[in-house]
Amino acid sequence: MSGSRATHCGYCCPPIPFSDAQIEAVARIFRNSKIREEDLDVWERTLTCGHIVQQTVHHSNSGPSFSTQHCADCDMTRGGVSSEKIVTVVTRKREAQKERDQQLARAERQLAKAKKAAKEARRKRDELRAGKP
Prior knowledge:
Largest sheet: 4 strands, antiparallel
Strand order of the largest sheet: 2-1-4-3
Structural class: alpha+beta
Radius of gyration: 29 Å
Strand content: 15-25%
Region (Disordered): 92-133
Helix content: 40-55%
Order of helices and strands: HEEEEH
Number of domains: 2
C-alpha cells in the first residue's frame, strides 16, 4: 500500500516477523502434536558423497522435500542423488496392527490365567469354609 509503513500488500516484501508470543503459540502447537510412526514412509537416500542415509517422510508427501541432507559419516550436508521408498505407510500400519493383535492376544491369555487362578482360590476358600481338609 503506497505510503503506508504499517500496511503492505505482501507480494513484493516478506511478511512482518512473528512476535515472541506468536512464536511461542506456534511452538506449543508443534510440541503438543504427536508423531504417529505408522503414518511415515521410510526413504533410503543416496547422497553425493556416496553414503546412504534413511529419512522418514509423512505418507502424504511424494518424497523427501529437501534436496540436501546431513551425512553422519562425512559430518557435512550433502546433496541427494537418488531416493527410494523402502518402507511404505501400508507396511507400517500392517506391522502396527499385527503388534496390537499380538498384545491383545497376550492380554487375553493373562486374563484367562488370572480367571483360572481366581476360580482355584475360590474353590480352596469354599473348602476351608466348609471345614474340609
